[in-house]
Amino acid sequence: MTDARSLNTSPSITRLTDYEPYPYVIADVDLTFELHPTETRVTQRSQVRRIIQGVTSIELNGKDLTRVSITIDGVEVSDDRLVEIDETLLIRQVPESFTLEIVTQLNPEANTALEGLYLSNGMFCTQCEAEGFRRITYYPDRPDVMSIFTTRILADDQHPILLSNGNPISDELYPDGRRCVVWHDPFPKPCYLFALVGGHLAVQQDQFVTMSGRKIVLRIYVEHKDLDRVQYALESLKRAMAWDEEVYGREYDLDIFMIVAVSHFNMGAMENKGLNIFNSSCVLANPEAATDQAFQRIEAIVAHEYFHNWSGNRVTCRDWFQLSLKEGLTVFRDSEFSADINSRAVKRIQDVNFLRSAQFTEDAGPTAHPVQPSEYQEISNFYTLTIYEKGAEVVRMIHTLLGPRQFRQGSDLYFSRHDGQAVTINEFVATMAEVSGRDFDQFMRWYQQPGTPRLQVDVEHDPQSGRLQIQLTQKAPVIAKDHSHAPYVIPVSYQVIDRDSGQVLVAESLFELTEPSALIEYQGISGSPVVSVLRGLSAPVKLEMDRSTHDLTALARFDDDGVNRWDAIQELYIQAIQGLLADPQAGIQAELADLLCDLIADPTAITDPACLAEMLMLPQDNILWDALKPADPQAILFARQSLRQHLADSGNAYWEGLYRAMKVDGPYEPEASAIGRRSLAITALGYLAKTRSVDEILSERFDESSNLTERFAAYRIARSDGSEGLSERLSNNFLAGAETDEVLDLWLSTEAMNESTATIGRLHELMSHERFAWTNPNRVRAVLGTFANRNVRAFHTPEGYRLLADAVLKLDAMNPQIASRLVMPLCQWARFTEQYQAAMKAELRRMVAKDLSKDLYEIVSKSVD
Fold first, then answer.
1. Are 351 and 486 in a shared domain?
2. Which residue, of 392, 421, 553, 828, is most buried by count of CB atoms within 10 Å of its CB?
3. Which among 300, 302, 310, 388 has a CA at the least distance from the CA of 340?
4. Is residue 365 part of a domain?
5. 860 vs 865: CA distance, rounded Å
């Protein structure tokens, strides 16, 4: 077998246009696992039938396998019929229908890539999406080959819990002391949805009664020390199951649904049929060991993976170019679930903020690609924000254009027509076209064209005649080559309010922009009209619109759309930072200071604390760098800090009152209203710490609070604005109390991004900490991911770039997936000034000259020039 590292000079490219159906049907697969830490034996027995005539060979995939034997209909296949190149095994001269048996041997203990079968704290577990199954046995590792799996697992008494997909069939003890458990999944699935777990685990059980009256057993398996932290995930699962029945009519199909928490996991979670495997950080929570944000993240991810049972499992993707078929649709579904369960306005603000700060950045960088890519070198590199977040926004636009009723009709048709099939994005959109009667040909450009389109909005108002004109012009993404982008269908939601009173002059309307430009005109509009456009971010575009401070202030005060209120004040912050970059002594405009004071002066008038907390947060670095290109990150950091100080000083009379009014007393509850109040209280305390010493408050909150949210906030604020003594005490005490990995990661990430103490030397200390492990993705992300994405002062230096590049090279030998994701901050060099560009490109060139994995080589080679 050829090592992937030798392929850097001529990487193979997989293209959508080259897709061909697999020429065989594999109806049934029987798997037997004899688990052993270093010598696991896997026996695969498959029933194979040719469906395309003229083919006499069968192509299978395998990687890092020890081949023991291959037989067809009980006869050993001779070596001269086998051709193995790279990750492909070709068996020649096979009959039309046959039984294929393959025995392989694996070393789970040595598998640091965390793909296929590996060990996590002594627990056997699997991760097969996208191409991990080939590390278990030789098999057509592609999503359009769907089979019914029966799995037999044998293990010693050190691994009494043995799990796989489907329903349990038998459980017996062998004379040699080994246990044998058999699972059968009656629903055909691709091998990427296969899962296995074996370990000494504790379990919490519940049940859910479906809308048809079936009783479903629910189980969450964890390490014994974590059993007191699973109840919230279990409750979240039941909420998700009920919501999916109510909103989409989707009922669960197996007799049992299981979740297993795993400490070593490359992703957040995996939707394996009936046996979801979760990164432990995405399932474990109690008030003492999880923040409000962690509780909400757990609820969303549990829902996301459960929703995949239909949008991903029962109906899956034909090939990996259709990845957003399952991920974009499911992200949209989990976002709507979270909005229904919590605050819709706040959820949408958070989604839009993440989209703009992260996905828009990806869309403008060297790895930009369409929602439906046309080619790839390494599929693991396409689990991107474009596939997930932008894909969800495209589905959201379909929902906006059709409305809830027709969208539900379309989803019903999609699930019923394609149940048990592997299909394409086009087939999903076709069901929406069929129920609505709409032509989606032009809309499909959202799937086919890369980059973020721009929407230019020009407004003219004649106060004499009352004529209001709104000119809409769509422009190609900044990465587009001349004439490479055809016009999109852009749903533009807008409303017009009066600048002085907030009165609605034109009610909310939806305009479908299909041409390069269009004019919307109204007569008889008096007063001072202000247009609120792209309400709720009705399309994932960049808005180009000259808006005065007066107009933005009016939107921030009066707009009844939460996203646009937040967006208006964010734009005011950006304008203020621009002013401070031009003149550091300039201060901020009185209009912004007055707006801030009006928003926070009367706590009793605050109707949505969580929304106000979002409005008080300054724009993220990525958004500022995009708005202020070519960006000097250090200068922008200084201006951002200066703005924060000006805002703190402007609201000095109100911060403490706001903090005390919003502070939540009584037992901790991770529900929306309490989370919103805590968020605003913590935000107010952070601003208060900029104006005077709050050591006493921070010390009291840290020592006496019963929940991690407040204790973590006290530690974090003390680290940036407390006295040196308090800062060190809370840092040491927070670490001393970090009994769980999740709390440890909070400490590691805070220490890695705290710009007053997190120097390059401090980063080396963190990477040498006794609880840091290069083989654990969560530890790596907590230190290096946070450093590269959140610590502007230390990272954006030649030494910072070198530190990240060295870490990525080290990781590439162990876990290429994590390495290829961690390198991304270096790949965004084009938006910075020349001195930063040169230093970042120097590290990329140094890396690309090394012997890299396919994963890392694809990213770095695309980014180096």
1. no
2. 392
3. 300
4. yes
5. 9
Q: Is position 305 annotated as part of the catalytic site? A: yes
Of the residues 448, 474, 491, the one at which a domain ends: 448
pLDDT computed for residue 865 by the predictor: 77
393 φ, ψ (degrees, to nearest 5): -65, -35
Residue from 702, 674, 660, 681 nearest 612 by CA: 681
Residue 535 lies in a domain: yes
% the chain with pLDDT above 70? 99
Q: Which two tokens stand for residue 375?
A: 């080619």
Residue where the block lists tokens 């006290």: 714
The confidence score (pLDDT) of residue 484 equals 83
pTM, full prediction:
0.97
Please write the tens of the pLDDT for every residue from 174-225: 999 999 999 999 999 999 999 999 999 999 999 999 999 999 999 999 999 9
* Identity at 761, one-letter amino acid code: G
Domain extent, residue 645, equals: 573-692
Q: Which amino acid, 545?
A: M
State whether 472 and 426 are in the same domain: no
Q: Which amino acid is at 765?
A: E
List the chain residues with pLDDT less than 50.
1-9
Choose the catalytic residue: 115, 305, 336, 378.
305
Residue 93 belongs to domain with CATH number: 2.60.40.1730
User: What's the CATH number where 473 sits?
Assistant: 2.60.40.1840
Q: Position 529: which residue type?
A: P
User: CATH code at 444?
Assistant: 1.10.390.10
CA distance 683 to 827: 32
* Residue that is last in its domain, among 649, 672, 692: 692
**Strand runs (DSSP E) across 156-308, as ranges?**
161-164, 167-173, 179-184, 196-199, 202-209, 215-222, 256-262, 269-270, 275-279
| Domain identity same for 97 and 167 | yes
**Dihedral sign (CA 339, 345, 351, 354):** negative
H or E element at residue 649: helix 633-650
Cα–Cα distance between 309 and 276 in angstroms, integer? 10
Domain count, the chain: 4
385 class by beta-carbon count within 10 Å (0-12 exposed, 13-18 middle, 19+ buried): middle
